[in-house]
Amino acid sequence: MRDPQIGEILVQPDDLKRKVRDLGAQISVDYADRDLLMVCVLKGAVFFLADLMRAIDIPCEVDFMAVSSYGSATDSSGVVRILKDLDRPIAGRDVLIIEDIVDSGLTLQYLMRNLGAREPATLEVCALLTKPERRKVELPTRYVGFEIPDTFAIGYGLDAGERFRNLPYVAALADDG
Ligand SMILES: O=P(O)(O)OC[C@H]1O[C@H](OP(=O)(O)OP(=O)(O)O)[C@H](O)[C@@H]1O
Ligand code: HPA
Ligand SMILES: [Mg+2]
Known about the structure:
By secondary structure, this protein is an alpha/beta fold.
């Protein structure tokens, strides 16, 4: 039986696969002859990154950064903390931030400022999901997979209290609202 906390499915596995393939193809064209470094924002974006990287057919590297603003809550605390920084400098590199979701935009705002100060050659964002109705700050997001409604989402990396990251689809958290 399906966990009662798993609500309506928002994005099916086949649609995730198709979108990841298309994004990978587009990034491969846009970053041909560049120095692509993907910065994956732990933990949620790991699942998206792992699939996306395998859909990219140009040389690329990855580094990881862990930030947290949600903890076990379903509302952003508004205070973003670095839990793990990048291993290597990014000056002069073509940095693409990989996010699972842009919700309030506060995490991304912090990352753009923090990474921008390290003088990369370019700094862009690829987010699988966006929740425009909840946005507190607007940020340029070059690649976006899907718009989802104003509901707390779980699955394909997204957690509620660290659970549900392993779902192969994106769903609404049933108890929300
Ligand atoms: O646009 P915002 O309102 O800032 O929300 C988006 C951020 O929140 C989530 O991370 P979280 O802090 O839950 O960490 P996690 O990826 O480890 O779950 C998500 O993965 C994004 O990084
Ligand atoms: O809808 C969401 N689900 C899981 N994590 C999140 N972090 C920001 N928004 C969300
Ligand atoms: Mg989370």
